[in-house]
């Protein structure tokens, strides 16, 4: 490590240790160093690969974007959204790398200078995976309602922060909600996110991106994207936290949700149904969802949050299995 990298590493560790510090620009060399030459892969998606890195003060996650799929504008839009998102329920953004390395390459019997675009993002490392992994891998959590309610509350608070700051996430799904050491939900992956201008309520797109299960009907039908699109995805995630990851028709979901005995779970089911209303204007805002959660917490004694939400597991499993399908019916 040379002197420049030593100073840069010290600066990154300072940002890591200070929650109020702003993200900084980082070199490709430093990120290669702390990830041990990108040797520890911890995640992979259509737009890049995530590696674990180590600092003296803790671990980080480094996302290497696919330079062929992510344009400079998309990369800068993501950084813009990340810089505007600082909340306990959003994965903390530490820094970015936007280097182009020149190197000689053979071409038609001679050598030419070619540029390699490096586009990387550095985040806090979140140790407990994502919500999809939580629901699919740990079957012992099926009846662990207090944790699931904490996740629902955390996702809603993180989304409220984003919407209050005019950030439309556009790709909310269980894979993009990480879990920290205390099982607090942290929203991540802002690759599709956009700022909405003051007074702007929606945007129109011809390129439908995202995961079909979580895409609101108006996006598919009209290409209309708004904060209410995020609300639709939130509703699907709440449903999955209530009854699991199985594919269930929204039209026949009530029978499954009626098997929930915990009062808070039943009220969360009602919130989820409102969030997944096929008509965008009939969905609540995230502030209204938070108000509903506040109301149910005031109505139901806090001791209830520590009880296990009893589910008729056998009947619920039979019901879900009888309604398996390849995609949600809107």
Comma- or semicolon-separated keywords:
single chain; two-stranded antiparallel sheet; Phosphorylase Kinase, domain 1; disordered C terminus; ATP-binding; 330 residues; Transferase(Phosphotransferase), domain 1; 38% helix
Shape descriptor reads globular
CATH architecture of the largest domain: Orthogonal Bundle
What CATH calls the topology of the largest domain is Transferase(Phosphotransferase), domain 1
Q: What's the helix-strand series?
A: HEHEEEHEEHHEEEEEHEHHHHH
Class based on secondary structure composition and strand pairing? alpha+beta
Radius of gyration: 22 Å
Counted up, domains total 2
Mean pLDDT across residues: 84
What's this model, at a glance?
With 330 residues, the protein is α+β, with helices and mostly antiparallel strands. Helices cover 38% and strands 20% of the residues. Strand 8 (177-179) and strand 9 form a beta hairpin.
Structure description:
It catalyses: L-threonyl-[protein] + ATP = O-phospho-L-threonyl-[protein] + ADP + H(+); L-seryl-[protein] + ATP = O-phospho-L-seryl-[protein] + ADP + H(+). Residues 36-305 form the Protein kinase domain. One of its GO terms (molecular function) is protein serine/threonine kinase activity. Pfam families: Pkinase (PF00069). It comes from Triticum aestivum. With 330 residues, the protein is an alpha+beta fold. It folds into two domains: 3-124, Phosphorylase Kinase, domain 1 (2-Layer Sandwich); 131-322, Transferase(Phosphotransferase) domain 1 (Transferase(Phosphotransferase), domain 1), CATH 1.10.510. It has eleven helices and twelve strands. The protein has helices at 3-17, 28-34, 72-83, 131-137, 145-164, 217-222, 227-243, 253-257, 263-275, 286-299, 313-322; strands at 24-25, 41-45, 48-54, 59-65, 93-107, 110-124, 167-168, 177-179, 185-187, 194-195, 202-204, 224-226. The strands form four sheets. It has a six-stranded mixed β-sheet with strand order 1-5-6-4-3-2, with helices on both faces. A two-stranded antiparallel ribbon has the order 7-10. Strands 8-9 form a two-stranded antiparallel ribbon. Helix 5 runs antiparallel to helix 7. The longest helix is centred in the middle third of the chain and has 20 residues, at 145-164. Residues 310-330 have low confidence and may be disordered.
């Amino acid at each position: 490590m040379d002197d420049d990298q030593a100073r840069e590493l010290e600066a990154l560790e300072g940002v890591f240790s200070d929650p109020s510090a702003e993200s900084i620009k980082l070199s490709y060399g430093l990120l290669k160093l702390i990830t041990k030459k990108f040797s520890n892969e911890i995640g992979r998606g259509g737009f890049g690969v995530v590696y674990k890195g180590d600092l003296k003060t803790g671990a980080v996650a480094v996302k290497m974007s696919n330079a062929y799929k992510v344009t400079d504008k998309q990369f800068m839009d993501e950084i813009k959204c990340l810089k505007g998102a600082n909340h306990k329920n959003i994965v903390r953004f530490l820094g970015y790398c936007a280097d182009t390395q020149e190197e000689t390459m053979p071409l038609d019997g001679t050598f030419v200078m070619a540029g390699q675009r490096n586009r990387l993002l550095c985040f806090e490392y979140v140790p407990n995976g994502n919500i999809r992994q939580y629901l699919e891998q740990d079957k012992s959590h099926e009846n662990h309602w207090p944790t699931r309610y904490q996740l629902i509350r955390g996702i809603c608070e993180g989304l409220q922060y984003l919407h209050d700051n005019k950030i439309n996430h556009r790709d909310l799904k269980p894979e993009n909600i990480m879990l920290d050491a205390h099982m607090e939900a942290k929203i991540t992956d802002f690759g599709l996110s956009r700022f909405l201008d003051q007074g702007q309520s929606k945007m129109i797109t011809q390129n439908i991106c995202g995961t079909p299960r979580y895409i609101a009907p108006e996006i598919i039908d009209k290409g209309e994207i708004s904060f209410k699109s995020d609300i639709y995805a939130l509703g699907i995630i709440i449903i999955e936290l209530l009854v699991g990851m199985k594919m269930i028709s929204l039209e026949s979901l009530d029978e499954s949700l009626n098997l929930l005995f915990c009062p808070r779970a039943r009220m969360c089911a009602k919130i989820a149904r409102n969030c997944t209303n096929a008509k965008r204007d009939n969905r609540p805002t995230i502030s209204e969802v938070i108000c509903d959660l506040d109301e149910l917490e005031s109505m139901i004694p806090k001791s209830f949050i520590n009880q296990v939400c009893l589910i008729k597991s056998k009947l619920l499993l039979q019901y879900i299995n009888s309604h398996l399908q390849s995609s949600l019916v809107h």
